Amino acid sequence: MEFMALSTEELTLAKIDQILRILAVIATKGLKQREQIAVLNQAGLAPKDIADLLGTSSNTVRVELVGLRKAKRGNKRK
């Protein structure tokens, strides 16, 4: 197998991604898991990425997102 070195641009993007993940965890610290999921989802993270950050399964994240959407629709009807 041939080893390919990462370019400077790829390394920079990887570091930025790492920093964003750290900031996301810090920003949601102290919130309940459902609230963390809502905030991270609104920030544009995919369910798998949210699950990785929170140490849970992507299925748990998807279930919570469905519940949040249902709750939001329920509030609009009142």
Plain-language structure description:
The protein is mostly helical and 78 residues long. The protein has a domain of 48 residues: Arc Repressor Mutant, subunit A (Orthogonal Bundle), CATH 1.10.10. Helices cover 74% and strands 0% of the residues. Helix 2 crosses helix 3, helix 2 packs across helix 4 and helix 3 packs across helix 4. It is elongated and about 50 Å long. It starts with 7 loop residues before the first helix and ends with a helix.
Keywords:
mainly alpha, 74% helix, single chain, 0% strand, Arc Repressor Mutant, subunit A, 78 residues
Highest CATH level, the class of the domain at 31-78: Mainly Alpha
**Overall pLDDT metric:** 88
Question: What coarse outline follows from CA principal-axis ratios?
Answer: elongated
Going by helix content, strand content and strand pairing, the class is mainly alpha
List the topology elements.
Elements: H1 8-28, H2 33-42, H3 47-54, H4 58-76
Helix pairs in contact: 2-3, 2-4, 3-4
Concise summary:
The chain is mainly α and 78 residues long.
